[in-house]
Amino acid sequence: MRIDDRGSRIAQAAAILSIIVLFFAPCVAQERARIGWAAMTASHMPLWVAQEKGLLAKHGLVPELIFFGAGPTALQALVAGDLDVVLTSAPNVVNPRFGGADTVMILSIIPTFIDHIISAPNITSPEQLKGKIGGVNRQGTVSEMGLRLALRRLGVDPEKDTKIVSSGGNPERLAAISKGIVHFTIMNEPFLMEAERLGFRDLVNIATLKIPLQWNGVVTREATVKARRPMLTRVARALTEAIHSIKVDKEGTKAAIGKYSRLTDPDGLERTYKKFASVLLETPYPDPAGIKTLLDDMAPKNPKAAAADPRSFVDQSFVQEMEASGFIKQLYKK
Prior knowledge:
With 334 residues, this protein is α/β, with parallel strands linked by helices. The chain contains 16 helices and ten strands. It folds into two domains: 30-112 and 215-332, Periplasmic binding protein-like II (D-Maltodextrin-Binding Protein, domain 2), CATH 3.40.190.10; 116-209, Periplasmic binding protein-like II (D-Maltodextrin-Binding Protein, domain 2, 3-Layer(aba) Sandwich). The strands form two sheets. The chain has a five-stranded mixed beta sheet, with helices on both faces.
């Protein structure tokens, strides 16, 4: 009799606990996350897919996605406390930190340059870029840095041999080269395909130059890491799961690309998917080597860059925790 009573009490307690968990879990689990993304490029695919497939909500977030035309503007909002995280590039981690901000990258999205140098049809070699005008998004953005680094690798001094001007995002740069305002620019899919259709030359695939750089990643503040680490852990998990989804669900990913980029052309969607999905990392560590490229580029003119440790700009603990817990392994069932 005593055993039966005890079992009954345990069962009743378990039932009551289940009801309490079900009642309170939605209130406890959901946490607001203000997430910025900068520039209209498919490098933001993981965020788009995470939103469209409900992965942010699955991991207990109430997301507010905010678009910015360029990384520096988004970083201003982050430093001001108007955002919790931003998907942006290495320059937008390093430059604010040199100015006294506590910016840090916690997740890698795109670990290298995947843009192409597009030129007017009469420019047939990198050597012919000398004396010409090149267009980038803005000074200080990853497009500006990528173009300068690529030109140097190609034997063209961007400061002495060319003039680099701010022309806006990919659509604006395509318009600038179409009007002859610039003679060459840097862009990626799906705008690369459109440039080719308009008769412009795909002069250089920068990816073939193998320049390491955190071209896109998840950036936050060290203060946010200390104050809201559980929220950031959820963001990291949602985006890492989105990367897995991108790799296994091409059609769903292409639908997300089409929605956010307003691209409808089937060939353009296919090319964009292949270009970006191929470089996403299963285990998305923010690599200090991708910061070092930028620091080395800045060092001749900036003593802070020359003395800086690239490891101080990244926090690998979020990916380490996902890896140690088996979260990533479970996604890929390894």
